[in-house]
Amino acid sequence: MKKLVLIMNKLYITEDIVMTKRDKRALVFVNPAGGAGEAYRLVMEYVVGVWSESEFSYQMIITEYAGHARDYVRTIQLADWSGIILASGDGLVYEVINGLMSRDDWQEALKLPIGHVPCGSGNAFITNILRDSKQSVMDTMEKFVVQAAILTATHSVIPFDLAVIDTCDGQRLFSFLCIEWGIIADVDCESEKYRFLGETRFTVEAVKRILRPRVYNGYIDYIPYSDNDDTLNTNHITSTTTTAQLHHHLLPMNESIPTDSSTTKWLRINGPFAHDFESNLTVVTQWHRNITYAVYLRRSLPQDIVMTKRDKRALVFVNPAGGAGKAYRLVMEYVVGVWSESEFSYQMIITEYAGHARDYVRTIQLADWSGIILASGDGLVYEVINGLMSRDDWQEALKLPIGHVPCGSGNAFITNILRDSKQSVMDTMEKFVVQAAILTATHSVIPFDLAVIDTCDGQRLFSFLCIEWGIIADVDCESEKYRFLGETRFTVEAVKRILRPRVYNGYIDYIPYSDNDDTLNTNHITPTTTTAQLHHHLLPMNESIPTDSSTTKWLRINGPFAHVLITSKASISKDIVASSQSTLSDGYLTLQFIRSNGSTRTNLAKTFTKLSEGNHFDFNFVEWMRIRAFRLVPNDDHGNIMVDGEKVAYGPIQGEILPGIGRCMGKQSNVDRVSTNI
To answer: Which domain of life is it from (predicted)?
Structure first.
């Protein structure tokens, strides 16, 4: 029993629980789609151990389609089972009850006790069971699941009410919970598109429906409850009673209900019916204020969030080719609703060609916009930053905060923004998109570093993320042919390149980072400063870098290399942590490299296995240092060099950090008060 106490964390087993071994097994159904797809994991991690320790015997069935459990219980041998347990939401409870009621021996079938492990959205059945036994429902899903696992393993058999329901299409159904019409029904039904959010889907849809109440025309006939009513008594049910006979007051659906109070018990309430918006204004206001947090933060919400309406619109670019072509659908299904309910004002532009966003931001009136949001991968972020930096008034343009909704392959920009605010990145694309939609609607303005980059063909570019040479550059560039695979394209190409590693000849000159370095200070930038002046250490590309340590800060590393990566942020994609110590605005670049030698293939394979956690610096063959500036000089005639995932001319390239020069839509971490602008 000690393991049960440990599993429960702060729940303890009372001394009067008697554990008796059952001769029969319980039939357990697990809906793998339940609880935003978490049901099976919850059962295996938190339920199976409890049942094993209590010697609770069961057989588990994973449902394969809607109605599977209903079909299954229609044909089981009742004598083989001690009960039925549903690891799901309430849908499977309804399904099994109606499956049992469709049997010829439904009277015997109903004697099988039904248990419930909460692995869905509503979880009302187990909540009512616990409430009836005077138990408080646990405050986290994991504890709630363990609580139910213990209850099912140590249960008594308790009766509960059903309601017989006749519908207009001739069905006879049996309800264990409720009949809904109006706003609750709409919320229950129309929240299905947010099922991936789990229980929070109801809150999201409820706010929408409260803010836009509907009217429901009709009437309700009813018989009031009375203690001495002659209602159907279960003692009168016999082995020959059919489910068609399971009523006492109901009339055939084609007959009108008599409502003359002198001759019948039936009374009538006439509509129309509607949700009373005004009487719930306080609740609506609170929900409206906090909804964007409730969507994905399943904990107590801060009480001091201040929401202020923006006077200007955000300029939103959607790349329809992003995310394997799913960007527009993701925005329309998961972003627009969040922004609408937040009263977040925006204008949406669908990009029509490569460079469209860059061209567009070069000519916008800055005063018209509150910020720029990119529903895309990282390519559009790079494009817009360089578009803003090409303006004559680039200093003012950079004050526009940039937001990012992850609708592409890499999605590094939003990943780093979330990482910097100590938020975990959501595990599915849909949740990730909603998380970003909420962040953009409720953002604070946060600074981030850029790097100024000079290429061998005379371009001056501005990087928000990384400069790649070696295997990462090849993977980034040559995986383009697999773009239809989304993020998976990087994995496919990485495996190919590890198995056939290339050698990259050349050298890297760099200036080490120092806390008291005299690097470019953004406070020294004036309205007359040009982008050509945005450097402190760089030399013209046609001049050699001096490397005499007695006269210069520059140092040199000679190749050959297998991997070279220079980053200004921690993550270079959602799943790759290239430099775990880096932040949005730490004021330095991180140079890392792996030398080409006889162990290259093994070293690369080891490195790639650690990139998801950012632990690859633990390997002594991964050399790294913090730097202020660099010049990378390949000795080869051709190859790939990438800046923020975009291919640039192959040849010498140099760069320098520009600390805190950019602005993004983010969140301050570890603050007591959150000022939330909408």
So the answer is: Eukaryota
The SS3 of residue 72 is: helix
CB 642 within 8 A of CB 477: yes
H/E run at residue 294: helix 281-294
**Contact in structure between 7 and 46 (CB atoms under 8 Å):** yes
Give the span between the Cα atoms of 19 and 13, in whole angstroms.
11
Name the superfamily (CATH) of residues 2-175: Probable inorganic polyphosphate/atp-NAD kinase; domain 1 (3.40.50.10330)
CATH 3.90.1150.10 fits 285-445, yes or no: no
d(CA 405, CA 415): 10
CB 657 within 8 A of CB 519: yes
Beta bridge partners of residue 88, listed in sequence order: 118
CA dist 250 and 609 (Å) reads 66
| Region of residue 99 (left: phi > 0; alpha: psi -120 to 50; beta: else) | alpha
pLDDT band per the 50, 70, 90 thresholds, residue 232: low
Task: Write the pLDDT tens digit of every residue in 360-397.
Answer: 999 999 999 999 999 999 999 999 999 999 999 999 99
Helices (H) and strands (E) in the chain, counts: 23, 29
- What is the structure's pLDDT at 239? 77
CATH 2.60.200.40 domain position(s) in the chain: 460-666
What band does 190 get if pLDDT is binned at 50, 70 and 90?
confident
| 104-126 burial: b if 16+ Cβ within 10 Å, else e | eebbebbebbbbbbbbbbbbbbb
Q: Give the end-to-end CA distance of the chain in Å, rounded to a whole number.
A: 51
Query: What is the per-residue burial (b if ≥16 Cβ within 10 Å, else e) of 158-192?
Result: eeeeeebeeeeeeebbbebbeeeebbeebbbeebe
Place of tokens 């291919």: 647
Query: Torsion angle of alpha carbons 31, 33, 34, 35, nearest 10°?
Result: 150
Residue 589 in tokens: 């670049």
- 645 near 382, Cβ under 8 Å? yes
Are 622 and 580 in contact by the 8 Å Cβ rule? The answer is no
Beta strands in 455-531 (DSSP E): 460-463, 466-470, 506-512
* Segments of the chain assigned to CATH 3.40.50.10330: 2-175, 285-445
* Helix runs in 88-169, H state only: 90-101, 106-109, 124-132, 141-153
Contact assessment for residue 676 and residue 307, using Cβ atoms and an 8 Å cutoff: yes
Q: pLDDT band for 121, please (50, 70, 90 cuts).
A: confident
Q: Evaluate if pTM is beyond 0.85.
A: no
Decide: 58 and 49 in contact? Cβ < 8 Å: no
Residues 6+ apart with CB under 8 A from 364: 315
CATH assignment, 460-666: 2.60.200.40
Amino acid at 294: A
Which of 549, 652, 637, 631 shows the shortest CA–CA distance to 589?
A: 631
Look at residue 586 in the predicted model and tell me its pLDDT.
93
Tell me the β-bridge partners of 206. Answer: none
